[in-house]
Amino acid sequence: MRYSPEALIAFVEAASAGSFSAAARKLRKSQSTISSAIANLEADLGLSLFDRQSRHPVLTAHGKRVLSHVQEILAASERLDALAIRLAGQIETRLTFVLSDTYQPTHHETMLNRFEQRYPDIEFECLIAEDEDVIDLLQTGRAHIGMLEVQPGYPPDISFARLPEQTEMALFVSGAHPLATETEVTPEKLATVRQLSLNTYTRRDNPKPQGLTWSAPSYLMLLEMAEQGFGWAMLPRWMVKQFGHNKLLELSSRGWPKIISVDAVWSKNTPPGPAGRWLLDQLINGADRTM
User: How large is the average pLDDT for residues 28-39?
Assistant: First the structure.
């Protein structure tokens, strides 16, 4: 490839994020590194990709046309990497999988049983994380595959695929909580009562809930806090049914419950090996797929 992958990724991320500094944060690089990479790409192409006269860089007409081609190049590169891994057949010795509690594990045991039979010698590690924490674990190389609630956008170094399963999220409180006596709870009423809110370790620019909040980085911790009557929480219905000890009551409120979709995610820079690819295939195409 004539153009460096790092420069192409920097260009795509800067275009997506709207600034070189935001791109640098997502890619864990310095702003000067991103600026230099994009400048080198512009020099190689002989084109100005960004108009830098305003406060934030804006794609030029040439930049907009180049962007779609660069995205195609990166997608083709990823497909080539995946093919090379499958053809090489070199099974990884360790696989770390990050599971989200938004995923209802209907076929999880079946999938893991098939995985154990197919790859009995792999060291398998399962972590629990949500949202930005999942992305962070992939980008730092701590994990190989993750699952999370569908995000509005992903960094250019992260691949994703929609899973067929969905889950329901609803609002819950302890049966002894004052809200438990309400026939229907309005958003205005909820705003006056303490919310037990998900707050990941690497949360950056996401809006914070209004009103008084207590937070935790996992839904299971929020469930336990709700059981103790500390406030109301948005929780996966399946989790409350399985781990709620019949202490929680589902609130009736406009717009709830909500259907949540889940994505599988992995790093383009350090893609999963054959075992990881097999696991992804099971997740994406359904765990009832034959071996």
Answer: 90
